Amino acid sequence: MLPSIIDSAEPFFFQGGPVGCLLIHGFTGAPKEMRQMGEYLAEKGYTVLGVRLAGHATSPRNMLRTTWQDWFFSVSDGWHMLESAGKSIFVVGLSMGGVLSLTLASHFPVKGVIAMSSPYSLPDDPRLPFIRPLSLLVRNVGKGESDWKNPELAKDHVDYPYYPTRSIAELRDLIAVMRERLPSVTAPTLLVQSREDKSIPAGSAQFIYDRLGSKDKEILWVENSGHVVCRDLACGTVFEAAHQFIQKVCQGGG
Questions:
Q1: Which residue in 214, 227, 232, 243 is the catalytic one?
Q2: Nearest 5°: CA angle at 112, between 109 and 114?
Q3: Which long-range contacts does 149-157 make (Cβ < 8 Å, 24+ apart)?
Q4: How many domains does the chain have?
Q5: Rounded to whole angstroms, how far apart are CA atoms 157 and 5?
Q6: Which residue range forms the structural domain that includes residue 132?
Q7: Is 175 part of a structural domain of the chain?
Q8: 120-170 pLDDT, tens digit each
């Protein structure tokens, strides 16, 4: 039997104007977590593509077969699709999607970057240095307590119920690549982080900001939201800030 994508977690595309937005979901997540933001940006006239990262939105078993390079290729495929259609491209990512957005921007000529809830490192854990050999013994790691401010939205959120241990090692390596590449990111960049995010180290946005090569960079700190800022209670503030940022860059105000 062929594997199938989880219902409502499919990638999406909205045809719009000459500015393209490439939306990238997070680690163990799905395009659905970016869809509301995608619909908002499409209403503003942008062309929007929400990609599905390799191994995601199907079964955690499939994630075990993927590497951080596979996730990066999923994103670069999306960039090439929009670029071949003649679009000026903004990359917009949540969590690991933000890490991928920044990494992509260090290699490709993007118009701008919006990185939301993006980790500069993984939370301190004494198991991390041994995560690859540990994955042979402990296949999965629990996710811990939720930080959603709107529990109703959390109920229909699509993600895997646990972290495949081997995939955590891939995420760690991807973040290390991003850190190394940050000085090469020269496109205008908007970083978004909730002050109540329990999933990533609290200073992540500032650490990324300080190491970016871009001269046009800003941080939006949001309140009343958990990690998934593009779906939680503060999402309207995030959407409007993203739209204003894109408009400013496109009008040469950066």
A1: 227
A2: 130
A3: 149/196, 149/224, 149/225, 149/226, 149/232, 149/233, 149/234, 150/232, 150/233, 153/231, 153/232, 156/8, 157/32, 157/33, 157/228, 157/231
A4: 1
A5: 15
A6: 12-250
A7: yes
A8: 999 988 888 889 988 989 899 999 889 999 988 888 999 999 999 999 999
* 104: CATH: 3.40.50.1820
- Residues 60-102: pLDDT tens digits? 999 999 999 999 999 999 999 999 998 899 999 999 999 999 9
Strands 12-14 and 47-51, sheet pairing: antiparallel
Q: Is residue 60 part of a domain?
A: yes
Q: Which of 111, 140, 154 is nearest to 249 (CA)?
A: 111
Q: Name the active-site residue from 88, 197, 204, 214.
A: 197
For residue 130, give every residue at least 6 positions away whose Cβ sits within 8 Å of its Cβ, in sequence order, or none: none
Residue 1 lies in a domain: no
Asked if residue 7 is part of any domain, the answer here is no
Please indicate whether residue 197 is annotated as part of the active site: yes
Name the active-site residue from 56, 74, 88, 95: 95
